[in-house]
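The authors assume throughout that readers already know how a fold can be written as discrete tokens. For illustration, here is how one protein appears when written out as sequence plus structure tokens:
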Amino acid sequence: MTGAALALVMIMGGAANAASITPPSEAFAQNPGSDYFLADYTAYEAYLKTLASQSDRMKLVDFGKSEEGRTQWMAVVSSPANLAKLDHYKAISKRLAKAEGLSKEDAAKLAAEGKAVVWIDAGLHATETVTSQGQIQVLYRMLTMNDPETLRMLDDVIILFAHDNPDGMELVSDWYMRHEDPNKREFNSIPRLYQKYVGHDNNRDSYMSQMAETTNVNKQLFREWFPQIIFNQHQTGPTGMVVFVPPFRDPFNYNYDPLVMTSLQEVGMAMHSRLVAEDKPGSGARSAASYSTWHNGMERSIAYFHNSIGLLTEIIGGPTPESVKLVPNLQLPNGDRPMPIAPQTWRLSQTVEYQWTMNRAVIDYASRNRERLLSNIYKMGANSIERGSKDSWTTTPTKIDELNEAAKNAKPGAEDEMMASFFGRAGAVDPKLYSVLQKPEERDPRGFIIPSDQADMPTVTAFVNALIKTGVDVDRATKAFKVGAKTYPAGSYVVKAAQAYRPHVLDMFEPQDHPHDLEYPGGPPKAPYDITGYTLAYQMGIKFDRILDGFEAPTERLPDLVPVQAGSVKGSGKAGWLISHETNQSFTLTNRLLKAGQPVFWLKDGAKAGKDSFGPGAIWVPASAEARAVIAKGVKDLGIDAFAVGAKPAGEALPLKPVRIGLVDVYGGSMPSGWNRWLFEQFEAPFEVVYPQRLDAGDLAKDYDVLVFADGVIPAPQGGPFRASRSFPQPKAENIPAEFHPWLGAITDDKTLPQVADFAKNGGTVITIGSSSRLATVIGAPVEVAVAKKDGDKLVGLSNKEFYIPGSVLRAKVDNRQPLAYGVPQDVDVFFDRSPTFNLKASASGVARVSWFDTDAPLRSGWAVGQEKLKGSTGVLDIDVGKGKLFVMGPEVTQRAQSYGTFKFLFNGLLYGPAVAKK
């Protein structure tokens, strides 16, 4: 959205007092926060506009459209005097956060003048309904209360009250309110995800910023307002308690500034203290829940990598009254749970009051620490610039292991031995060994260079835009330049580490080194809150160089998102066009050509066009007027080249054909399937969503050529070698609208999977991803699970102490001469989350290994226990099933639409299977 479009809207009205401002109880059908009622987004939006027209403490900002086209609104709340100078204070916030070219003295002056900026949002996870309902009441009170504390807050702080997920609020609230009988109201049975594509995973999209809502939020946080505090409100609270409030358990990520963590603890404890002071028991921190600060993908956690204090609360409550459970051990207070709560009935109105207290605590902290917050965000940004401008090192668990190993061979000094003996200070080692942590070759990069001559530049553009969306400064070379012995072409991207958001830069390029975190010494691994390794440059297959020394380059700063650089038709041949298979967008162009009825072929042995060589799977399009029109437009807007040649290339050519794709989903919605749905739309794959009832009915070839089962869509039982799926009860058909009846049903081994097997045997193509690859064992494919063991006659998974890879990036080998791997490099980074791999049975035939692990240590980023057990096992398989194909993809090749480097496995399977199906 342009600056002009991101305009302040609505009228600033009269005096802020209760008499002139409509209370929520009069604006809604029922007072938000009362039992058995949920206001929807339509009513919420109308109320925001009413408030904006009545209050001089609020401006209403349109900050973008949701995926379904609703407006995301942000209520900017502060004193009338501050609102009159809003642009001025916004500029101060930006100047301090970016820190570039700003002296300490000037920063101090700006901090003294500026206002603290606090972001408080609601509704990200729409079934966590209390946050949106509570925000309505918080807004009204901040606009109408005139006590000294409120007025002080308004003078010192600019509060950005925003809504993250309008579509979800509308869906969930309307679904809940559809019954006249309050006792029948519920939202556990909503038929689809509460965000158009990805549901709960909208809070795992922060660094990638694929969803429209995420992009809108990130722009406000890291490109427009630069708040010092980002408060992301959630539900549900821990059992036997009311609310989880920071600080969080370890580990924290090693890239960000320690000041952000100490500040986080300050704010969190201020929230606890205010709850306790107001006789509101039941809050807990750290060990009270599993939340950590490791993963960058969440709204409150990406804040840390941008020097902002990210807050997460998880509270109980809902429109239907519930109860606080009695958990004996939680009745004993400790440092993480200072004030236990008695078991009781709990109502939404109580939750709203807790939210009010926590909101006030955060705003009060910002008010009392206004100047310090502004100074600290400058300090952290300046620290990042300084660290990126000189030799610096990030200490990681691997380096500590190296230090401990070095210490084994070093004799302790006499003083160390005495201290250890008399004072129990064992563990100290020779200070000279500190050099182990600062090996010259292991210093942090001064920057990263992304050459502009790599094979898949549209994917590079997507990566660069992901950085820009999150506020990273990216430069582009205006001409060729040299660093060391290497020359980089014009158009190469340069990302310097000497910038305020250095922690985020490092986290996107460098591997995550997660600690070996155990429940207790010698015990099993402690499960991380989310994934442990996610280096975006690795997942996307970006080629880049780490530059360890200071360097200069002729560059220009990119002011905004980068459009894909238009490709072109090269050459003047009349026979047809050659197109590389190495770009993901070649799949989009192929889909357009097939939709237009044009023939497209894959060349088994590749081809040449003058000096340009094309690897296996090069795309050949015979000349025609229709194809010429599609290609002329496609190369321009997709950013790929087509080479016009004078003769048809020699060698074996595989003709493709239009395909009908069935993307399998389930009632309530699968997030991995939703990510694939978004992906298919972006790359223009023809598909429709198919549900279990349709699969059970059989005769699948009538409607589909390919069936795609995303991770978790085929359920797996507990205790087996496949990651078990979470199952949710489905409603009875008579309790939901008739339009959703065909969505009901479950995928079962006895009814559904035989129909899927028959589909493949009769020429269909089936693609399974992640744990859905269990299908291979169910239908009797000649493979067996590689990492498993026998428990009697039953095959079970290994214990976590033996094998545990909870979401990491691994390196795999690829045979890219096989059609399923055309365009994939011989070594590829794959995302692996307790994923299945396979061994071929001795009698196997009609099976090809496409990608496998060939080393004892495939880990590239994250955490892996027992990774050596993967050696020799296969992750991607091409299996003949009768006349059709089963493509098994154990690793999550489309993980949250981030793993661009492995998309081609799926894209190839969609076209290759139907192309070779036997009649």
